[in-house]
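Input record (one chain):
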Amino acid sequence: MNESKKMALLAVEALEDKKAEDITIIDISEVSVLADYFIIADGSNRNQVQAMADSTEEALGRAGYDAKQIEGYQSANWILMDYKDIIVHVFSKEDRAFYDLERIWRDGKQITKEDLQ
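The corresponding structure, as predicted from the sequence alone:
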């Protein structure tokens, strides 16, 4: 398993652990140099969104992956977690619908958790 797949799987499992809703994985490796995967999820309230981000940072940190940058944690509307090979987007429901990253990145390939294993 390559590193970016391993990172993406860890992030998805960490999000699932905090009951993230509607987790979407987009393989952008063939359409962008930004990263290999976008992981997008949402939570129902500010505390859950922050807990999802904390869980992801902790799981990836334990595995030896440190975030290059984390933005938006305080407001918890859209927390962007940049791990170079993967970028995790943790949204509130309203902001996820507003920004609609799945539409913007539709040239990428939506994959399942099983595709990462």
